[in-house]
Amino acid sequence: MNRTLYSLLFHLGLPLVALRLFLRGRKAPAYRQRIAERFAFGLPPLQPGGIWVHAVSVGESIAAAPMIRALLERHPQLPITVTCMTPTGSERIKAMFAGEPRIQHCYLPYDLPWAAGRFLDRAKPRLAVIMETELWPNHIHQCAKRGIPVALANARLSERSARGYARFAGLTRPMLAEMSLFAVQTETEAERFRQLGARPECVQVTGSIKFDLKIDEQLLPRAQALREQWGAGQRPVWIAASTHDGEDALMLDAHRQLLEVHADALLILVPRHPERFDAVYGVCSEQFATVRRSSGASVDGQTRVLLGDTMGELLFLYALADIAFVGGSLVPTGGHNPLEPAALALPVIMGPHVFNFLEISAMLREAGALQDVDDAEGLAAAVRRLVELPQDARKMGEAGVAVMRANQGALQRLLDGLGALIR
């Protein structure tokens, strides 16, 4: 398949794209809004001549935030246009950069040649930065036609994804050859990009910028103060963060087993997707005394579950807990970022499905900062052990912080690479 055939198939598939938007809009009404932006119409006013950063959804937006703030500081004369593909990503971007006049935001139009060209003619960026591995052939080609360098930041490429790209070499090799920088996390991934067609001189191993996560010095004191306000300073508190459909019931099952031994334990349950908040609350409240974080109600001695149904508070919710389970890992989603709880010195627990963070989870596991579980029983046992052996929990937390510190510096290396491309 070449780019011409790919574009033709994309046009033919637009009815399916519309159907997908409609179906997603039934669960999350925000998908029915701003549809014109997805075709590069009705875009907000964009100041041209700056840097364009694309972060597909919430996780990439959070990972991109330190880079974007550093770019704002390094290039005070340039606007930065931040795009994403999901309503949750959009809300996160707006929340993170509220009040920053140089941040511009819209959805990234679909990867159609005319939509990509229209967007670029409006934004006129001097540099395009794509987070992780969100590669769109027409957007990249339209950048190349306009002389806009394209960088892939914090790049990841699993063996499985590499095999997928290799099957469409007629499409992917020319696309990768048009790109100017691949700032990849590991040498293994660097070699995969080279084999797929990236120019060797454009591939740099910079590490993962997720290790450069900065924790607000007021975060832990604020969390501790809230726990004291709840009267929960001595209660066992654990968090199950970024859970997916199929995991919530497992979390509640594990919590029920924990309560048999530690009757005052509190679970903070944080579903990954906002459209599931109401349904998960219904399941929780049928089984346990549950408080919604969004309600503003205080947790009391009878509360057994706090539902984290707010946006932009995940780090604070982690800071409220003693032990962290990172979701998307007991179902085959691939897991979410374990470095966020590790940075807060929490012992980390994950299921077997961690392919989105394979290297990072392996590093934490090898250091003794992460424990694997396979089911609700294993999770309950792991949480119970860490509650009853606080010295073990402390050692795991300290090991996680050590891994973070030993691997920092990727952001600086990435910024140096990007700086060389800004003309």
What does this protein look like?
This protein is α/β, with parallel strands linked by helices and 423 residues long. The chain folds into two domains: 3-208 and 408-419, 3-Layer(aba) Sandwich (Rossmann fold); 219-406, Rossmann fold (3-Layer(aba) Sandwich), CATH 3.40.50.2000. It is 46% helix and 14% strand. The chain is built from 18 helices and 14 strands. It has a seven-stranded parallel sheet with strand order 3-2-1-4-5-6-7, with helices on both faces. The chain has a seven-stranded parallel sheet with strand order 10-11-9-8-12-13-14. Helix 6 (137-145) links the parallel strand 4 and strand 5. 45% of the residues are buried. The model has no long low-confidence stretch (mean pLDDT 95).
What is the domain tally?
Answer: 2
Q: How much helix, percentage-wise, in residues?
A: 40-55%
Number of strands: 14
CA distance, first residue to last residue: 34 Å
CATH superfamily of the largest domain: 3-Deoxy-D-manno-octulosonic-acid transferase, N-terminal domain
Radius of gyration: 22 Å
Largest sheet, if any?
A: 7 strands, parallel
What's the level 1 CATH class of the largest domain?
A: Alpha Beta
Instruction: Categorize the overall geometry.
Output: globular
CATH topology of the largest domain: Rossmann fold
Binned strand content:
5-15%
> What is the count of DSSP helices, taking H or I runs of 4+ residues?
18
